[in-house]
Amino acid sequence: MSKTVVIGALGPTLDRPAGPDRWHKWRPSVAICQQQDLVVDRYVLLTQKNFHKLTNQLVGDLQSVSPETSIEVLETEMSDVWDFQEVYGTLFDIARDLKLDPKDRNLVHITTGSHVMQICLFLLTESRHFPAKLLQTSPALRKNQGPEGSYQIIDLELARYDQLASRFEQQALDDISFLKSGIPTRNPAFNQLIARIEQVAIRSTEPILLMGPTGAGKSQLARRIYDLAVHRRGMTGEFVEVNCATLQGQAAMSALFGHKKGAYTGASADRPGLLRAANKGMLFLDEIGELGLDEQAMLLRAVEEKVFYPLGADTPVKSNFQLICGTNRDLQTQVDSGEFREDLLTRIHLWTFVLPGLAERKEDIEPNLEYELNQIAQRTGKRVRFNREASKAFLDFALDPDARWRGNFRDLNAAVTRMATLATEGRITEEGVNDEIQRLQQHWGSRKAEAAPTAEKLLGTEKLQNLDLFDRLQLEGVLTVCQNCRSLAEAGRRLFDVSRQNKQTQNDSDRIRKYLAKFGLSWDDVK
Amino acid sequence: MNNQQNNNGPIDIDGSQGEGGGQILRTSLSLSMITGRTVRLTRIRAGRKKPGLLRQHLAAVRAAKDLCAAQVEGDRPGSEALTFTPGPVGHGDFRVVIGTAGSTTLVLQTVLPAMLTAPGPSTIHVLGGTHNPMSPPIEFLQLSFLPLLKRMGAEVSVELIRPGFYPAGGGELRMTVQPCDKLQPLELKHRGGVKRRRVRAVVAGLSESIARREIKEVHRHLEIREEDEEIVSMTNSISPGNVLQLMFESAEVTEVFTAFGQLGVTSQQVARDVCKQAQKYLAADVPVGRFLADQLLLPLALAGRGRFRTLRPSGHTLTNIQVIERFLPVSFRLEKLGDGMVDILVEPDEGHLR
To answer: Do B100 and A67 touch (CB under 8 A)?
Structure first.
């Protein structure tokens, strides 16, 4: 039969009462063994130096109220029970050395000890370093209850404690993220990029430009830069975010720069505008390439001189904000075609960072998965986890070269949200993962179908109509493969996958280049 | 009455019936050992705040298991189902520890009847609480119950080695039992005059003035001679405790009433509490009080015959009767006598022997 094992710290204050009267007092470490419906087989009592007398009293009293319990006193070497690092390290070592049998009913008592000890005990239980449930004791609530009070066992693995778990979790996360600032990403290039961004964010108030495909996390990163500025530079203003693609015509001007009452039909009251809302804070303009030329001019002035005129206003308004811009388009190309002001680009691309898509940093999928689950737990108060097989199945799929992650983190976020929503009892199963894989494949497939008339886009309808169906189909296929490859060489390897094996020298790239040239296309056109 | 369907098969007992879930368990264990029949208890203490087996119950199960090398399923804290398949009752030296100041006397009560049927004498040490408001104190066994058992032919003695008061426990009792082939029937019809009234106030780790105050208060309610007052100061207790007892010796029986000193209860209240119990007993011409009635049911049923007069039985007593009738070929009868008095009769149940 499995044993009941308690691991608990001596409480120098709560366990303190001495003399005959101590039996009428609630002493949590003793109360555990006074419960009518709890038999403790083994009790590991964590003590500290200088508490010999109290330890001896506790051990004697425990033996008296619970002769069936074998008591082990473990003297810890902590010099400061309020030092997070020292306490965590000590308890971590204890968890490792105790080698608790997960098949036993192990209970970690979190009512006694310093708060830091309690937090560390929780963390080590949550992380399964102690394969245990939490044990909480409480004093008698009513007069006719005995001095032993009551107790509660909290199984963090159980769905009904999800809410509790997620609350604890949140607190723990706050601590950890304070030290590690966010997701423990593994991709070295990305980590380097983030390190550089942090340096800039802490030191500079100049504009920052974030480039990268949609869903690469520009918006989240912008917010993180803001949070960092708040923490490290004492930025006091708000984070104001707008997607320029949603700003059209006169409404765009008004939304950004505000207007005076009566500035135009329908302007029935003063509107401060987003630039003013971002005063002393940060303004994040996503998809800056979608901004109209007039707005670009106004924005440039506002960035350079920190003043601008709201619509219909005679006097300029001051706003001092840091600008972050996001784009998934090549702004230089837009400058060339006259869609983007060169002076504005020069002004905003002082600090330009290119965020890689998810497919280029697949080693970060796993930590991001964990992050997404935590986010869901915080948002909904419900903790959802993958079971082991499900986690493996999903990662296998996610890391496969064929997984395209076209929507990048947006896809990952959506996938996790769907799986978590459909999970029963807080568990994502292999079945749930397989369903999601199908959904993602369909989704990416359908994007492919949408993008299918690539040949039409590149060649124009007229040219295409002069081709046989045979050639049209072949071209469409080749173009689709090329678009999914990062380099000409990769496209060559995939398109000539059989014939290249029989050749001594490979000229696959050349063959594709020539094939494309037949239709007047180059590799750059295709990408 | 509805006796057992089959004379060898397991006996199913609903542990939630009537009152006294713990008593149902103890009686079932005792009779399972004596009859050699498997007992299956279900819904043990169902619907209680802490349902299922508690530690003191598990201690009784463990003691019974040791005594007859039983096979047991479901002996876990909180378990609401228990199957107990006894082996032959053994004898010799036994030792049981109970935590949480759980009552040692209840464990003795569980094993005693079976020890009488063992092939040789037994001694059992029980460690735990000896004075617990929820169970009869050792003095009740020594002065009231065991002398009656002796009249039925059983040689049993109980000694207090060390007191153990709630909530610390840490006490120890020793019981020695000589085997007894067949208990003799017992009749207790009249109490007759009370020959001697005694008061005994026990303090451990507390001032004797508490005991004196209690006795002083008792004098306001009952007449007791000065030489029958006793103050006992125990020094070998690990925790403080206070007990006030009244003993009434009549021609055939001694009754013991007990009240416990508690934090927040004055000595006067403790005294009034025990006097109230005693006055109820004295007001009726019955030899057997309620607690003693509970204890006598099983020995009388084992003897196969007997009767005693007592106060109107508690739900606890009635439940106990139902359980006994499931195991033994006897039937109980209650004869109401008015004034809250009842005769409880035990007779062989002919139907049961078919």
So the answer is: no
* Domain A4-156 shares a fold with domain A362-444: no
The C-alpha torsion from A449 through A450 and A452 to A455, rounded to 10°, is 180
State whether A37 and B50 contact (CB < 8 Å). Answer: yes
Q: Domain residue spans in chain A?
A: 4-156, 166-354, 362-444, 454-526
| B77 contact A CB<8A | yes
Phi (first) and psi of residue B155, to 5 degrees: -100, 100
Has this prediction a pTM greater than 0.90?
no
Residue A453: what pLDDT?
Answer: 58
Assess whether B316 carries a catalytic annotation.
yes
**pLDDT higher than 80, residue A454:** no
User: Which of A88-97, A260-269, A329-338, B283-292 has the lowest average pLDDT?
Assistant: A260-269
Instruction: Return the CATH number of the domain spanning residue range A362-444.
Output: 1.10.8
Residues of chain A with C-beta less than 8 angstroms from the C-beta of B164: 64
The ipTM estimated for the assembled molecules is 0.79
In Å, how far is B121's CA from the nearest CA of chain A? 26
Look at residues B332, A285, B333, A485 and name the one whose alpha carbon lies nearest to residue A508: A485
Catalytic member of B91, B219, B316, B352: B316
pLDDT digits (tens, 9 = 90+) for B179-189: 998 999 999 99
* pLDDT tens digits for range A123-157: 898 877 898 999 999 998 776 678 889 999 988 76
* CB contact set of B127 (below 8 Å; sequence gap of 6+): A67, B95, B96, B97, B98, B104, B164, B169, B170, B171, B172
Identify the bridge partners of residue B103 per DSSP, sorted by sequence position. B129
Q: How confident is the model at residue B354 (pLDDT cuts 50, 70, 90)?
A: very low
Token match 């983030």: residue? Answer: A194
Chain A CB contacts of B240 under 8 Å are 20-21, 23
Rounded to whole angstroms, how far apart are CA atoms B256 and B160?
A: 16
Fold exhibited by the domain A4-156: Rossmann fold (3.40.50)
- Chain-chain contact of A23 with B239 (C-beta, under 8 angstroms): yes
Top CATH class of A166-354 equals: alpha beta
- What's residue B178's pLDDT? 97
